[in-house]
Every structure is written in structure tokens, then in C-alpha cells.
Amino acid sequence: MTESKAYTALNDKCGMPLLYLRTAIAILVWLVLSVNVSVMAQEEPQYDEFPVYVRVPYIGVSEIDAVIKGEEVWLSVSGLFDFLKIKNVVSEDLETVTGFFIKPDDTYSVDRVSNSIVYAGRTYDLAEGDIIRSETNLYLRSDRFGQVFGLDCIFSFRDLAV
């Protein structure tokens, strides 16, 4: 059978000229490869959650949850306050921590939604990112504990200790 007879026989069997089939496949491949599809993945957190040691002179050492981002640390508000025996109540949605500090009249509220801390009648506005909420905890940047509550925190990245 010669080439033209085979080509004609194939066209008769397929019902469509082979040339049109090749062209359709080429166009389909070009469309698939040329379509610019943006794929959105789940956003990765830009921080890591680790337990860190908290050392307080004359009180002791404890391990609490913390968030580390670069060389900075955010401490679990409830974790630190539990260790220091400071009254704290965490809301069910993990958006606020409330309680009192030393005296029952010195109430505080750490609020992620308003990005502020209210302590003893004074409101401290926080910068974006000073409070981080994970699925299990509310974290406050360590230097804010010193600025608001007088609990100065020095973080040692080498020892993972505050």
C-alpha cells in the first residue's frame, strides 16, 4: 500500500482528516501551556513556635510557649502570667487576655482585635505585629511586657531563654 492510499484509508476510518486532528491537538497543547494560572497555597506562618525557658531571679525557671521570628521573641501572655502567678483569663476565641496585676484595682486587658493593652486605666496602642495569635495561644512581643508592665525581658537566642 502506498503512502497516499494509507493516508486515505486512515482518513476514511477516523472520519476526520488526520491533518485536522494534528492541528486540534497542537492548539490544545498550546492553550494548556500558555494559560497563566495563579495557584494560591495556604499562607505559611512567618514565625516558629518553640518552648523557651523563662528565668526570673528569686522565683525560678520555667518553660513557656513562645514565637520566634528572626531574632525577636513573642511570649505567651497566659504562659508568662501563669508562671508569675498573675491573674489572667483568656477568651474562648483567643483574642483577649484579661485580669489584674498585683492589686485587684490594677486591671489589664491585652486585646488583639484593637491591637492595644489597657492597664490601670491607661491605653497602650501597639504596633502592627506586636500581638500574634496562633491556633492555641496569644503572644505579645517581649519588649512590650517591659514597657507596659515593667517586666523587662532579655532574650538569648543562643540559649532560647528569656
Q: Care to describe what's here?
A:
The chain has 162 residues and is α+β, with helices and mostly antiparallel strands. A hairpin with a 2-residue loop joins β7 and β8 (122-125). The chain is built from 4 helices and 10 strands, in the order ααβββαβββββββα. The strands form 2 sheets. The protein has a 5-stranded antiparallel beta sheet with strand order 1-2-3-10-9. Strands 4-5-6-7-8 form a 5-stranded antiparallel beta sheet, with no helix packed on it. The mean pLDDT is 81. The chain is elongated.
Characteristics of this structure?
162 residues, alpha+beta, five-stranded antiparallel beta sheet
First CA to last CA: what distance?
87 Å
Strand order of the largest sheet: 1-2-3-10-9
Q: Please report which band the strand proportion falls in: under 5%, 5-15%, 15-25%, 25-35%, 35-45% or over 45%.
A: 25-35%
As a whole number of angstroms, the C-alpha radius of gyration is 31 Å
Q: Give the uncertain stretches in residue-range form.
A: none
On the 0 to 100 scale, the average pLDDT is 81
Quaternary assembly = single chain
Largest sheet, described in full? 5 strands, antiparallel
Beta-strand segment tally: 10
Structural class: alpha+beta
Total count of helical runs of at least 4 residues: 4
Shape designation: elongated
What is the string of helix and strand elements? HHEEEHEEEEEEEH
Give a short summary of the structure:
By secondary structure, the protein is α+β, with helices and mostly antiparallel strands. It has helices at 3-14, 18-34, 77-83, 142-149, and strands at 48-56, 60-69, 72-76, 89-90, 96-100, 107-111, 116-119, 122-125, 131-133, 138-141.
